[in-house]
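Example 3.2
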Amino acid sequence: MDNTELGTGKIGQLVVKLAIPTMLAQLVNLLYNIVDRIYVGRIPEVGSLALAGLGVTFPIIMLVAAFAALAGNGGASRAAIAMGAGDIKKAERILGNSASLLVIFSAVLTVVFLIVKDPILLMFGASENTLPYASEYITIYLIGTVFVQLSLGLNAFITNQGFTKTSMATVCIGAALNIILDPVFIFVFDMGVKGAALATILSQAVSCVWVVAFFRGKRTVLKLRRHNFRLERKTAAAILSLGVSPFIMQLTECLVQLTFNNGMLKYGNDMYVALMSILFSMLQVVWMPISGLSQGVQPIIGYNYGARKLDRVKKAFKLMFMANLGFSLVVVGFVELFPQAFISMFTGDAAIIEIGTPAVRVYMAGMALMGAQSACQNTFIALGEAKISLFLAFLRKIILILPLALILPLIGGLGVWGLFLAEPISDVIAVAVTTTMFAVSSRRLLKE
């Protein structure tokens, strides 16, 4: 798609063209972790323990993704505003600096976590029974950190140029390969959780090659140029200042999972840690698609805001808001009606299914409204409002859910049920605050 179409095409058609493929890409991207858990959970005799082990590694995986969002999403949003203002050289400079930051982050994360992985996993909720599975998986996964960083981070620049089909292909290629390789490595080669990790990083490596090849090709508006790889303080600071909101969102998710895993081990046992692995996956089934839809609309909002076409910004936001909220309401509705069906995708363990059925209904209830949260928060990012988006990122996880997860289990002996209740309570409060702030701030930001 010609980049100028972002400023001239019909908003409804642009939303369909850009947001739907991005949303589908996020759904496919879910398969990276969900497929691993589905297969690992069915390893004979040790499936439940191995599933709990994978759940313990997820905070580290989220932290890797957080740094990809810091450089990738922050840079892509800045580049979209620059393109809207007609400054392609500046946008390419942002792209090059983002790529350099991604490589630096990858090197540091790989070295640090390989050195301290076992103590970190124990801190994240591993037990003597689950640590071997967690350590085996994360050791192999960390070797492929650079592939994960570049494929996730640079793919945001593909989306923000309007090439959502290419962006979706990046994810689909890796996810499809992961689906094929998982059962081969896990069961045919009898590699267990090591096979799941190997399948994941090989798939991400292929996605990474695809993304880099795109930015060296003829179709892209923005190209990776060697002279832009040299970090510039002002450019890097601009990228990081806007990327800090999605970074905090991912980082706080890591902290939340750490708290929940430890809580489940403290008030329950390894079975509850395995259940949390399933619940986190189900939460992502709602959050990642609406986040993907929001990211698909971001280039429309960012470009037109940079071009000062504010009527188009308002129309794009309204469509995104309605689509996001509708999606979250429908998906959570299905989860509330058929919780056993969703849990059974991950495990055949009757005990986990029994305790998980009422827990799912409680834990997921607040996610029904998260479409509104995602729409407002991502629009703040698209408009370049780093401080507001940063506060909202802190609000739901740091200010609300973490304290609730620590306090509620102690009230009236709630234990694990206090943890299950912490999520919906924080979701409802966060949505109320975010939508109110957006209603007030948008009048100032979008004033003609």
